[in-house]
Specification:
Distance between the termini: 90 Å
Strand order of the largest sheet: 11-10-9-16-15-14-13-12
Largest sheet: 8 strands, parallel
Radius of gyration: 29 Å
Number of strands: 16
Structural class: alpha/beta
Strand content: 5-15%
Length: about 700
């Protein structure tokens, strides 16, 4: 083939693509994506051929030694040639993932298909032809060697379709988005049944697979395999080792980042099952012994294994204290606190915020486990976008990279769809190592929206400014769970008759003060939240009125959705607090009205979820089992019923008689014509009108 220079390549109509005769499964998947992308953009499915013909303008092939592309794993390049008047482009990959990335980068750069086209509902423009400027290209070296997602707390993905565990049609868009983002590893779900497709498909699509820190080596949990036995390595090492050997055998031919660890059952410290380990020295020695055993078992069965240890929870504390000894070639994975700050996580009310990064004296390789979504039964974001700013994410990740943690970056990505913007920020950071947040936001918005981009940028940028800051730290920002888990705790404490003492579960948020003051502290913060989220949402609504049909639906799902969930949660929790205040003052009818206001506000959250379940997203949020808005609605409804017992019982007619019945009827009515009690909603609406007139 001649190397004669060409300036432009025009692709139109049915494109012929020359592909190798034998393809790895990962490249076959990428080619299917490319065929779909061509058909979407040009309206015609391309033809794949194994030998070049005069119509083959696009060639896809693995590199051989003489090719002048970088000889490193996952590298790819674009080359252009002209032979006998026929111009041709080549996508060349150093290995299978290099080819996959090259194919997907071609799709992004020349067909306009963005990494989150599926999850962000990108409108893909139809074209009659594609003009390619023939500039040779070599892929840059990513900042992070191993980069990927932990698909964790994935209840939306589980509940979206009927089959369980989730099938290919759920997992393929997840793994495709990860590959299009330049990711190369994944933990595909949390504690899913082992007959599911998730691990097999991830490997089939070319990804490295890795493991949850509570499931070392990806092995079966001990108590599932040996129910009724005490989960003690000291008592039954051969049983633990049999599970590890089984896991190694099942994965030895896959690309695996082997997670070495020793935690107890159910993601707890192992000494919960083995209390004889009652000192840091004993605990650290056992963890070190187990990790060395796992390390040796893998090394004897797997060629060139890659090892990791998650420094999470108690293992991080023991390692920092010098009690855990690790092999030198193990990647140490440092974790943020779940809210994006590289410090130890809060455990109930304990929040030591110990720095979670290697020091200058640490040896070996290091990486990160980082959250853009979290589930902690306190204040985390699960259904909604990460509440921190892009600048905060930039500072934390760049600081971590400066400390040497660029061997590995695992992002807790949750259910993907609510977290597209944050995941795209992390995509840029793991690729380039740095990010210009203003430039990135401009590119992100212009990639997914057709009009009014400056105003949409402002909404993305100001989103974090509306979040409730419930504590003194920059990462103490309330996600959607803040409006639900503490609210349900308050209800339980209240209705169990414990209001004479504070609820210790809430000290982290509102302090060790009397219960009524705890509730009032929440109320004051929520009042601020209502004001800020209301103002943000009003700006959002104003922008939406200006957008075209496709953009308005997209902005509703990816902007208004989040603000509306925050506002409805704020209002629901606020009115619950007001209800308790009225109850505390023994103004029971007023407390009943405010509890009704709370329930109506929380119900708006359910409407918001349903509105976002259109088209392919039908039933996407039906498995909201973690934030669990429906549970909060039911809890508040219980409060209403409880309050109606205070003065309207037993006939549930007394409040109607006292506040609503005309004076002319009060002393002459007949029982049989007035004793059909109003429903809670009917009574609440009428009482609300009555009290508002006073």
């Amino acid at each position: 083939m001649s190397n004669q220079a060409i300036e432009q390549l025009d692709l139109k109509g049915q494109v012929h693509i020359e592909v190798p005769g034998i393809l790895l499964s990962s490249v076959e998947h990428a080619l299917r994506m490319l065929v779909r992308d061509f058909e979407t953009v040009l309206g015609t499915k391309p033809q794949l051929v194994t030998e070049a013909d005069e119509k083959s303008q696009l060639c896809i092939r693995l590199a051989v030694e003489k090719d002048d592309i970088p000889k490193r794993s996952e590298a790819f390049g674009f080359r252009f040639h002209s032979d006998g008047g026929i111009s041709r482009m080549e996508i060349i990959g150093h290995d299978d993932l290099g080819l996959v990335y090259g194919i997907l980068e071609f799709s992004r750069k020349f067909l306009g298909i963005q990494p989150f086209w599926f999850w962000g509902d990108q409108s893909i423009a139809k074209q009659t032809g594609i003009n390619i400027h023939c500039l040779e290209y070599d892929s840059p070296v990513p900042k992070v060697r191993y980069r990927g997602w932990f698909v964790n707390d994935e209840v939306s993905l589980i509940g979206w379709k009927d089959p369980y565990p989730p099938t290919r049609d759920v997992w393929e868009p997840v793994f495709e988005a990860l590959l299009r983002s330049g990711g190369n590893m994944v933990i595909p779900g949390t504690d899913l049944p082992r007959d599911g497709i998730h691990y097999e498909l991830a490997s089939e699509m070319g990804l490295w697979v890795t493991h949850h820190h509570a499931e070392p080596l990806g092995a079966e949990m001990f108590l599932r395999a040996f129910p009724g036995r005490n989960a003690s390595y000291q008592e039954a090492p051969e049983l633990f080792e049999s599970l590890w050997a089984e896991a190694i055998e099942g994965q030895k031919d896959m690309k695996v980042l082997w997670v070495l660890s020793f935690r107890g059952q159910g993601d707890a410290p192992f000494w919960h099952n083995d209390p004889s380990f009652d000192t840091s020295e004993k605990r650290g020695a056992m963890i070190s012994k187990v990790i060395r055993k796992q390390y040796d078992m893998i090394g004897s069965s797997v060629q060139n294994p890659v090892y990791c240890v998650a420094l999470y929870g108690e293992i991080a504390e023991l390692f920092k204290g010098g009690y855990v000894d690790l092999p030198d070639d193990v990647i140490k994975i440092w974790a943020d606190n779940g809210y994006g700050k590289m410090v130890s996580r809060r455990h109930n009310n304990q929040n030591h915020r110990v720095p979670s990064l290697p020091t200058i004296d640490d040896r070996g390789r290091d990486g990160l486990y980082y959250h853009v979504t979290f589930h902690d039964l306190q204040a985390s974001n699960h259904l909604t976008m990460y509440p921190g700013s892009a600048t905060f994410l930039k500072q934390e990740i760049e600081t971590a990279f400066a400390a040497g943690t660029d061997d590995y970056l695992l992002i807790n990505c949750g259910n993907i769809r609510p977290h597209v913007y944050s995941l795209d920020i992390l995509r840029e950071l793991w690729s380039a190592g740095t990010i210009d947040v203003s430039k990135h936001l401009k590119e992100f918005v212009s990639s997914y929206y057709a009009g009014h981009q400056d105003e949409l940028e402002e909404l993305y940028q100001s989103y974090s400014e509306a979040a409730i800051q419930y504590g003194p730290h920059a990462d103490d920002l309330a996600g959607d769970e803040y409006y639900h888990h503490p609210a349900r705790q308050i209800i339980g404490h209240w209705l169990q008759g414990k209001r004479e003492q504070p609820d210790s579960r809430l000290f982290w948020a509102v302090g060790d003060v009397p219960f009524s003051q705890q509730v009032k502290n929440f109320e004051d913060l929520l009042a601020q939240g209502i004001e800020k989220w209301g103002a943000w949402l009003q700006r959002c609504e104003e922008v939406l009125t200006k957008l075209g049909t496709d953009d308005v639906r997209r902005a509703a799902d990816h902007l208004r959705f989040h603000g509306a969930l925050h506002l409805s949660g704020c209002e629901g929790f606020y009115w619950l607090c007001r209800s308790y205040r009225e109850y505390h003052e023994q103004r029971y009818p007023q407390a009943f009205v405010f509890a009704s206001e709370s329930m109506w506000s929380y119900k708006k959250g359910l409407d918001i979820l349903r509105d976002a379940e259109h088209g392919k997203w039908d039933r996407f949020y039906r498995a909201d089992w973690l934030t669990n808005i429906e549970s909060t609605v039911n809890n508040v409804d219980t409060v209403r019923r409880f309050l109606r017992m205070h003065g309207d019982s037993p006939d549930f007619f007394l409040w109607y008689k006292e506040y609503l019945m005309p004076e002319t009827e009060k002393h002459i009515y007949l029982e049989n014509t007035h004793r059909n009690p109003l429903s809670d909603n009917e009574l609440a609406l009428l009482l609300k009108q009555h009290f508002s007139r006073r």
